[in-house]
Design goal:
The complex is a heterodimer of chains A (570) and B (97). Chain A has 570 residues and is an alpha/beta fold. Chain A contains 24 helices and 17 strands. Chain B has 3 helices and 4 strands. The chains are: A alpha/beta (570), B alpha+beta (97).
C-alpha cells in the first residue's frame, strides 16, 4: 500500500478485491472492540442465564435465516449457512453453559469469553483463510452479546457512498448493500474473506489492504474508487473526476452490453438461429438462471451432488432434477448420468493405475445395477412430473452395445412404472471409438452431445492436468476437429440433434467454428454466454465455415493457433 | 454395544480443510448419531463443531486421525472417510465433461 498526495487530495492504493468504478460521498465505519468486564451471578440465577444464552443464540440464528431468505445468490447463501452453523456450534454452546455454571458468569460474559477462546486460537493460525474468519466471529459475538454488533456508520445515508472500514463482517456487507452502498475500502480482510466474496456476488466494488486514516477522511466530501485497479482518490480534482467518470462509464457500458447481448435473439449475422444453453452443476446455480434468460440446460451434471453426499440419495436427486425442470419453464434439460470413476463409490477403496481409461461412466453404471436403477428411477419420476422436456445423456460410451443396454434398462423401468414415453437417450461423444463409429451410433441414439474436454484429451493422449504434457492438450488441434466433424456430420445425416457441452463451446472463436461445422446448439457455463453470443451474432455462417475449414485443414497445432490468431486480429 | 473406530485420512484438497470442506464435514457428521472426533498434532476436537474443525487449520497433505464412537460408528466412519477421499466433492468439475 502506498499513499501519495496529489493536487486532488489523497490517493490510496490497495489490493483489488471486487472490480468496479464508483464516485460517491465518503463514509467510514469504526468498530468499537467490545471489552466486557467480568461479571458474576448468584447460584440461584444459573439456570435463568443458561436459558437466556440459548435464547440469544437462537435469536441470532433466526436473524441470519431472515437475511438468507432475502438473498438469492448461492455464494451468499452458503456463507450465511456457515455463519448459522457457527452460531449453532455444539462446542460453543457447551462452553457457554459450562462457564455460567462453574464460573457463575453472566450470560453476556459467558458468550463473550467463549467466543474469545476460539477467536484467540484462530488469530494465531498460520493460515489466511482461518484468520479471515476472525471478523465473522467477532461480529457474531458482538451481535449476540448486544443483539446489535454492527460497525458504527453513524447512521448517515450510505446510498452510493464509498465506505471506509477496518474490516466488515459478511452480514454487514449484505445489510449495507440493502441500504444502497456504492463501494468498500477495507484495511484488513484477505481476498478470501466473506466480505469480499459477497461484494463480488453483489457486484459492489471493493478493495482491501488500504491503511486509511480517519484524520485524513474527516472533512472530505467525495471519494473516487476504481477497485479493479486498486486505487481510491479522496476529493479528486475536476480532471481526476472526469477520468473516473470515464472509467465508470466504460465499466457500465461493458456490463450493459453483456446484458443487451443476452437479451437479443440468437442469430448469426446472416440470420441463422442457434441456441445457447447452460451447464449446471449445483442446485444453487438454478436460482440465478431465469434472470439470465437461459434457453434450457444442455448439461445437468448429476455426479457433483452424489460426490458431495458420498452416496446416492434418491430423494435429493429427484428434487434436484425437478427443480432444474421447474426453473427452465418449457425449455429442454439434458441430464447426464453419473460421470464418475468407480473409486468414488461408497465403500470402494480400489485405486486404478489409469482411471481415465478405467471403470467409469457407463462402464461402472452397467456393473452397478442398483445404483443405475436408483438414478434412472429418480430421472423417470422427474420426467413424469414434467413430461417431454428431459433428455438422458450417457457418459463414456465406447460401443453401441452400451447404449443399447442403457436403453433396455430405461425401457424396462418405464414399463414397470407404467410410463408410455420414456425420455430420449443420447450419447456423450467423448471416447474417440464412438466418434469413429458415429454413423452407427447415430442409428441408435436420439441425440449426440460432444464432450470436448475429454474428447480432446483422449484424441491427443494428453492430460491437461499434467504440466509436462499440458501444452499438447489443445482443443483447436486439427485432429480434434476432424473427429468432431465426423460426429456432427453423422448426426446431421441421421437427422438427430447434436450439441457441444465442453469448454470449447465457451470459447468464442471455437464456438463460432462449431457453428461453421453445422452445430446449432452450444452449452456452457452461464458466465461465458455474453462473449460467445457476441462473436457468433457478429459473423455470418459463411465466414464461420471458413474458420472451421482452416482449423480442419491446419497442418498441426501451430497452424491452427495461427489461424485463430489471425481471426482475432485480421 | 458401543464401539470405537479409528482411521487415518489425508487432506487431499489443495487449499486444505478450508471453510467449505469443513462445513460439509461437520454437516454430514451431524446427521449421524455416533460421536465424532478428529485428532491432529496432539489436539482432539469435536468433529461436529465447525469452530473446532476450523481451529485445526489442517493444510493440504495433513494426516488426521478420525475417531467415531457409539451407535452407527462404522457407517459414520465409512461415510466420513469417503468425503476425504472425494475431496468433499470439490475440485472435480474440471476433470469431467
Amino acid at each position: 500500500m502506498r499513499r501519495e498526495s496529489t493536487t486532488s487530495g489523497i490517493r490510496y492504493r490497495g489490493t483489488p478485491a471486487s472490480p468496479g468504478v464508483i464516485v460517491g460521498p465518503v463514509r467510514w465505519a469504526t468498530r468499537r472492540e467490545l471489552d466486557l468486564p467480568e461479571e458474576t451471578i448468584p447460584e440461584a440465577d444459573i439456570s435463568l442465564h443458561q436459558a437466556q444464552a440459548e435464547r440469544q443464540m437462537d435469536q441470532t440464528k433466526r436473524r441470519l435465516q431472515e437475511l438468507k431468505q432475502t438473498q438469492r445468490d448461492p455464494e451468499i447463501r452458503a456463507i450465511l449457512d456457515a455463519q448459522m452453523s457457527m452460531v449453532q456450534d455444539p462446542e460453543l454452546l457447551k462452553r457457554v453453559l459450562q462457564q455460567i455454571e462453574t464460573n457463575r458468569y453472566t450470560v453476556d460474559y459467558a458468550l463473550y469469553s467463549s467466543f474469545n477462546e476460539f477467536i484467540q486460537i484462530m488469530r494465531q493460525s498460520g493460515q489466511d483463510w482461518v484468520k479471515d474468519r476472525v471478523v465473522d466471529l467477532i461480529a457474531l459475538r458482538d451481535r449476540m452479546v448486544q443483539q446489535s454488533g454492527e460497525a458504527d456508520t453513524e447512521d448517515r445515508p450510505l446510498r452510493g457512498a464509498v465506505l471506509f472500514a477496518d474490516e466488515l463482517s459478511p452480514t454487514e456487507v449484505i445489510e449495507y448493500s440493502e441500504r444502497g452502498l456504492g463501494g468498500i475500502v477495507m484495511r484488513h480482510g484477505g481476498t478470501t474473506s466473506h466480505a469480499v466474496i459477497i461484494s463480488q456476488a453483489l457486484r459492489i466494488p471493493c478493495m482491501v489492504g488500504v491503511m486509511w486514516k480517519r484524520t485524513e477522511l474527516e472533512g472530505a466530501g467525495t471519494a473516487a474508487l476504481d477497485a479493479g485497479n486498486g486505487e481510491v482518490v479522496i476529493d479528486p480534482d475536476p480532471a481526476m473526476l472526469k477520468e473516473f467518470d470515464r472509467r465508470e462509464a466504460a465499466a457500465n457500458r461493458a456490463l450493459e452490453e453483456a446484458r443487451r447481448i443476452v437479451l437479443q435473439p440468437s442469430e448469426t449475422a446472416c440470420g441463422s438461429p442457434f441456441d445457447i444453453l447452460a451447464n449446471i452443476e449445483f442446485e444453487e446455480e438454478l436460482d440465478r438462471l431465469d434472470s439470465e434468460r437461459i434457453r434450457g440446460i444442455g448439461l445437468l451434471r448429476s455426479e457433483t451432488l452424489f460426490l458431495r453426499q458420498g452416496y446416492f440419495d434418491s430423494e435429493r436427486h429427484r428434487h434436484f432434477y425437478e427443480k432444474a425442470l421447474e426453473t427452465t419453464g418449457d425449455q429442454p434439460v439434458t441430464l447426464r448420468l453419473l460421470d464418475i470413476g468407480g473409486d468414488k463409490l461408497p465403500g470402494r477403496q480400489h485405486e486404478e493405475p489409469n482411471p481415465f481409461l478405467g471403470w467409469r461412466g457407463v462402464r461402472m453404471l452397467l456393473d452397478e445395477r442398483e445404483l443405475l436403477q436408483a438414478q434412472l428411477r429418480a430421472v423417470l419420476e422427474a420426467h413424469r412430473t414434467h413430461p417431454g422436456r428431459l433428455r438422458i445423456l450417457v457418459p463414456m460410451v465406447s460401443d453401441v452395445a452400451e447404449l443399447r443396454e442403457i436403453r433396455s434398462r430405461v425401457q424396462w423401468l418405464a414399463n414397470e412404472m407404467a410410463m408410455d414415453t420414456p425420455p430420449p437417450i443420447g450419447v456423450m461423444i467423448e471416447v474417440p471409438a464412438i466418434a469413429l463409429q458415429a454413423r452407427e451410433a447415430a442409428q441408435e441414439a436420439d441425440f449426440f452431445s460432444i464432450g470436448s474436454n475429454d474428447l480432446t484429451q483422449y484424441v491427443l493422449a494428453a492430460d491437461r492436468g499434467n504440466e509436462k504434457v499440458s501444452a499438447l492438450y489443445d482443443s483447436s488441434h486439427p485432429a480434434v476437429w476432424r473427429v468432431i466433424r465426423m460426429a456432427v456430420e453423422a448426426a446431421i445425416e441421421a437427422e438427430i440433434p447434436v450439441s457441444v457441452c465442453g469448454e470449447m463451446a465457451g470459447q468464442p472463436l471455437l464456438a463460432g467454428a462449431l457453428l461453421g461445422l453445422g452445430v446449432r446448439e452450444l452449452s456452457m457455463n452461464p458466465s461465458s454466454i455474453p462473449a460467445v453470443k457476441k462473436l457468433i451474432c457478429a459473423h455470418s455462417l459463411r465466414s464461420l465455415r471458413e474458420l472451421a475449414e482452416q482449423l480442419l485443414s491446419a497442418q498441426g497445432r501451430e497452424a491452427s493457433a495461427e489461424a485463430l490468431e489471425h481471426w482475432r486480429t485480421p | 454395544m458401543s464401539s470405537t473406530i479409528r482411521r487415518k485420512v489425508t487432506v487431499n484438497n489443495r487449499e486444505g480443510l478450508h471453510a467449505r470442506p469443513s462445513s460439509v464435514l461437520v454437516r454430514d457428521a451431524s446427521r449421524f448419531p455416533a460421536d465424532f472426533f478428529i485428532e491432529y498434532q496432539g489436539y482432539r476436537v469435536n468433529g461436529k463443531s465447525i469452530l473446532g474443525v476450523m481451529t485445526l487449520a489442517a493444510e493440504h497433505g495433513a494426516e488426521l486421525e478420525l475417531v467415531t464412537e457409539g451407535e452407527q460408528a462404522a457407517e459414520t466412519m465409512e461415510h466420513l472417510v469417503s468425503l476425504f477421499e472425494n475431496r468433499f466433492g470439490m475440485e472435480e468439475s474440471e476433470e469431467t465433461s
